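hey can u check if this looks right to u? its 132 residues, i copy pasted from the old doc so theres a chance i mangled smth
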Amino acid sequence: MDLRRLITVYERPLQVGGARGAGGRARAAGDGTLQPTGVFVTPQSLVTFPVASAAVTIIWKVLGQISTGVGTSALAALVISFVIGLFIYFAGLNQQATSQEKVVQFGIAILNSFWLAASALGLNEVTDLPGA
């Protein structure tokens, strides 16, 4: 299953030509084949920290409006961060990677998930360091 296709909403034909066409629309310099186009979020933008952390915050707050207590639960933000972080991990997983590379990438995904949770929770500074 190609997880990148879950975000694709529609396809439009690309025209042969330069980088920008009439009206400012992007055109391909290739063969004019159909290319998937995401409407709001693309797989490429989701893997950026600002978009991923915004996605976590938005999902967390929307669920908080639907279900009492979720919007103030730090655990809910952590769970959503892990869902987004693991989605990014699996979407970008290279099937030719060795087991060792996959373990390292998974470890980075876990670290990134905590980073996303910290961002959503507003933990932007380290306090109470030992010896400080």
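The chain is about 50% helix and 5% strand.
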